[in-house]
Model the fold of this input.
Amino acid sequence: MIAFRPRAHGRATWLILLFWISIFAVVYLAINLSQGPNVARATTESAAHGEIVIPRSRDGHYYVAGTINAVPVTFLVDTGATVTAVGPDFARRARLVGGLNARIETAGGPVVGSMVSGATIVAGGIQVDDVRVAVLPSMPGGHALLGQNFLQYVAIEQRGDRLILRIPPRR
Done:
């Protein structure tokens, strides 16, 4: 005679359910981590119109491909940053050397870095010359913050999950 044990059967069901939930959670996290930010890139059409449409990334930020002194970089558009900022490794590659030592206020507190003048920045096909760039020792090498000293030359519009940078018409 086989005895039916509802409690033992219930525990097994919960263990199987917990197992599958764990598998789905691991797969979800792996997919989520493997997907980098949505980086907007200039196209022939966007360059002709003098604007770039940047989709919001999963992390809530806006990223755009560009260059500093013709060296490729991914910018995080930071409307709260006063100046464009890069790390020391990228600064060397982009020939951002010398400059003046400066105490720079960041979201994480004050840091000592350097301020280099005369950079040419292109973001999404929009070029601004003679821009100051802060070189911050704690910044990672592959990214840069695109600050107000570049953004002041473009019109910024946010429409839903898109940020639009546009060269304003001349007056």
